[in-house]
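This protein record is not my work; I was only asked to verify it. Would you go through it and say whether the fold makes sense for this chain? Here is the record exactly as it was handed to me.
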Amino acid sequence: MGSTTPRFGIRYPYQAEVVTPQHFANFASDMNAALTSLATLRDRATNMPAAHVTSEAGTTVPANTTVTLALNTSPFVVVNNAGMWNPAQNDRLTCTVAGIYVVSGSVGGSTTNATTMNAFELSLTFTGANNKVILHKENTENNTHEGHWAVNTLWIMQPGDYVRMGCWWSGSGSITPAIKHLSAVCVALI
């Protein structure tokens, strides 16, 4: 009579059982189904929805003002396999496939126009089914030099939900984040 493997359900005979042509046919059929299943899983894993957009255009951010950072001048689209990046809405990534996403934003640039810089915040703002703002806060202690800041999170997103990146700082003068990155990679479909 035999048994089956627990994970893939491949039928096999017991040790002392007489092997018949049907056993071989069952084994071949089950192996084909298992390999097809593995190929489907591999394709799904390597083609998960993802977008990563980079822009090197500077955005002036006055002190004590929250600014949504657009990726608007010559954006370099590294990945956009699910249509999440739309140049007509250049300040966001919009979810097209429901899932759990790793979302990352980062900026780098000059703070030399800041006379004083006391604190800096980089935010990811989620709009849709789960509205939320995720902040990275840093006490900069009058730091006036080139800086790099990043914020990352896991987030459940539904089609139509979107994420935008914002910047706020306190002090006097202005800063110009020049290098901006925004990415969202689905790690699990829901």
